[in-house]
Specification:
This is ABC transporter permease. InterPro entries: BPD_transp_1_N, MetI-like, MetI-like_sf. It is a multi-pass membrane protein. Keywords: Cell membrane, Membrane, Transmembrane, Transmembrane helix, Transport. It is a single chain. This protein is an all-alpha fold and 307 residues long. The protein has a domain of 174 residues: MetI-like fold (Orthogonal Bundle). 78% of the residues lie in helices and 0% in strands. It contains 14 helices and no strands. It is flat and about 85 Å long.
């Protein structure tokens, strides 16, 4: 088990380093940020002076090595736009992103899990048809369109909820449900498929032949093994959501990390882009690292095969 965990941890570290390297070089392809930071008519000498102050006049390899050294110290530099440490700006937006992601995941897991179980246990019935039809519709509906329709209905027409912003639970409900629709639909379809496959396994038939209670078979033999691919999906969704649901945050004016990174890209704010992507990549990789550990809990054969 120790070797399995260390191997996965090393893979996580290498993945984060690879992402940071890629984002460093890609941001340099976006253009010269100095042209966006100075007023029109600024002289070339003044622009060169600003480049020197920002360290953008150094050779690319020197900038890269300096960047890696700063990252190891947790220093991503000052945001060009906000004139504050980039990491500080990102951390200020994290509570809003965590709040949205947590609410959306909670709604999605509850609705998707219940729908997937119903569809699997009621296979071939009208209930399964309704659940799967709604799940397919949920996956096919564009997030921005759904968000706008929810605003028009619940905020504009009925006046029950605010159109956007950040604050109370009423501001959270619409964006969380908008994101949760896709999550619940994906979980429902995957859980149903996984449940149906697991029900055909020999160990499930053996459990039935031994006379075990249907509830025991469902909880300890069928559902536990069917959850393995679902856990994978949830781990990926956690990484994506904590990285910021850009479209949803934009539609509802939600001050999350995703929206902030999008604005940073638009303004060529290198330090803020790098800090944001570093945060997102770290969360995403750690989420998948925890998923790998969950594999070993749900199915001990996995760590035996990989150790």
């Amino acid at each position: 088990m120790t070797r399995y965990v260390l191997t996965k941890f090393l893979e996580a570290v290498i993945s984060i380093w690879g992402v940071m390297t890629i984002v460093f070089f890609v941001t340099r392809l976006l253009g010269d940020p100095v042209t966006l930071l100075v007023p029109v008519g600024t002289s070339t000498a003044e622009m060169d002076t600003l480049r020197a102050q920002l360290g953008l006049d150094q050779p690319l390899i020197v900038q890269y090595l300096s960047f890696l050294g700063d990252v190891l110290r947790g220093d991503f530099g000052d945001s060009f736009v906000h004139n504050r440490p980039a990491a500080e700006v990102i951390l200020e937006r994290m509570p809003a992103t965590i709040q949205l992601a947590s609410a959306a995941l909670a709604i999605g897991i509850v609705l998707g899990g219940a729908a997937g179980l119903i569809a699997a246990l009621k296979r071939g019935t009208f209930a399964e048809f309704i659940v799967m039809s709604l799940a397919m519709l949920g996956q096919a509906t564009p997030v921005f369109w759904l968000g706008i329709m929810l605003i028009l209905l619940f905020a504009v027409q009925l006046g029950w909820l605010p159109t956007g912003g950040y604050g109370s639970w009423s501001h959270l409900l619409l964006p969380a449900f908008t994101v949760a629709v896709f999550i619940s639909a994906s979980i429902a379809r995957l859980l149903r498929s996984s449940m149906l496959d697991t029900m055909k396994e020999d160990y499930v038939r053996t459990a039935r032949a031994k006379g075990l209670l249907p509830r025991t078979i469902l909880m300890w033999h069928t559902l536990r093994n069917a959850l393995i691919p679902v856990v994978t999906m949830i781990g990926i969704l956690v990484g994506e959501l904590l990285g910021g649901a850009v479209v949803t945050e934009t539609v509802f004016a939600w001050p999350g990390v995703g929206r902030l990174i999008f604005q940073a890209i638009d303004s060529n704010d290198f330090p803020l882009i790098q800090a944001g992507v570093a945060m997102v990549a770290t969360i995403f990789v750690l989420a998948n690292f925890l998923v790998d550990l969950m594999y070993a809990v749900l199915d001990p054969r996995i760590k035996q095969r990989r150790s």
